[in-house]
C-alpha cells in the first residue's frame, strides 16, 4: 500500500544528544557565550542555556551578540559549574552543605527542573515571554558585555612625566692664571716720578729727580715692560743733558 509508512526510531537519541552536548561543553567546542562568576570564566552554548532557562532565553533575545560575556552577580564559580552540568546532563551531585546555595542560584537563574514553575512554563507557548513580576530583579540581572572578539584596549591618560631638569648654580669664574712675577728692575731702572725742569734765559740749570721707594713691580704684559724700559732710557738721556755744560 502506497499510504503505508514506516516509523524509524533512534533508541539512544536522548542519550546521544545529552552526551554530545556535554562533550562540546567539556571541550569548549562551538561555544558562543562566556559566563563570568566568582572572578572566573566558563564558556557554554546559548541554545542549551535558552532551552533550560527562560531567563537566559530572554537575555539572549534582547542582546543578540555573536559571543556575549554575561557577568553573573552573587553567583559563585562552583555553583555555576554544577548548574551547567545539570543543564547539559539532566542530573548533578551536590553536597548537603552546598545544597541551599545551589538551589538559591538555580532559582535566581530560573533553571528548569530545579524551580517550582516547571508546570506553568510548559503550558506557555514557545514565543511567550514571562511577565515582569516573574523576572529576576535588576540588581541580580547579569550585565551583557560586548563581544569577546573585540578586546578591550585601555589607554593611559596620565600626563607624561617631564624629565628632571637640574637647576643651574652660578659658580664664579676661576681667576685667570697669574703670570709669574717678572724680575724687579734694578735701582737704575726704577720708575721715575714726574720731574720738574727749570728753564732760564741762560739755559738749563738743573733737573731734580726724586727717587721713589723701590717696590717690586708686576707687569701684566710685555708691552708695559717695554714702556718702562723706554721711560728709563729717556731718563738716562735727561741726566746726561743735565750734566753736560
UniProtKB/TrEMBL annotation:
Residues 121-131 have a biased composition (Polar residues). Residues 31-96 form the BTB domain. It is found in: Nucleus. Gene3D superfamilies: Potassium Channel Kv1.1, Chain A. The keyword Metal-binding does not apply. GO terms for biological process: regulation of transcription by RNA polymerase II. This is BTB domain-containing protein. It comes from Diploptera punctata.
Amino acid at each position: 500500500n502506497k499510504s503505508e509508512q514506516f516509523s524509524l526510531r533512534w533508541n539512544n537519541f536522548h542519550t546521544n544528544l545529552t552526551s554530545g552536548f556535554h562533550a562540546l561543553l567539556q571541550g569548549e567546542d562551538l561555544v558562543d557565550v562566556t559566563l563570568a562568576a566568582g572572578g572566573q570564566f566558563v564558556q557554554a552554548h546559548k541554545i542549551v542555556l535558552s532551552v533550560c532557562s527562560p531567563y537566559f532565553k530572554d537575555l539572549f533575545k534582547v542582546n543578540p551578540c555573536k559571543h556575549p560575556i554575561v557577568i553573573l552577580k552573587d553567583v559563585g564559580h562552583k555553583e555555576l559549574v554544577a548548574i551547567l552540568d545539570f543543564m547539559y546532563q539532566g542530573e548533578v551531585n551536590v553536597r548537603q552543605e552546598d545544597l541551599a546555595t545551589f538551589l538559591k542560584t538555580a532559582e535566581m537563574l530560573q533553571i528548569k527542573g530545579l524551580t517550582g514553575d516547571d508546570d506553568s512554563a510548559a503550558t506557555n507557548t514557545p514565543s511567550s515571554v514571562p511577565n515582569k513580576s516573574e523576572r529576576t530583579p535588576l540588581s541580580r540581572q547579569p550585565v551583557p558585555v560586548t563581544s569577546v572578539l573585540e578586546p578591550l584596549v585601555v589607554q593611559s591618560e596620565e600626563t607624561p612625566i617631564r624629565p628632571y631638569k637640574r637647576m643651574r648654580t652660578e659658580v664664579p669664574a676661576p681667576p685667570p692664571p697669574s703670570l709669574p712675577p717678572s724680575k724687579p728692575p734694578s735701582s737704575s731702572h726704577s720708575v721715575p716720578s714726574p720731574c720738574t725742569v727749570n728753564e732760564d734765559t741762560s739755559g738749563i740749570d738743573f733737573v731734580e729727580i726724586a727717587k721713589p721707594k723701590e717696590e717690586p713691580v708686576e707687569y701684566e704684559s710685555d708691552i708695559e715692560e717695554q714702556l718702562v724700559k723706554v721711560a728709563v732710557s729717556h731718563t738716562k738721556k735727561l741726566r746726561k743733558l743735565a750734566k753736560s755744560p
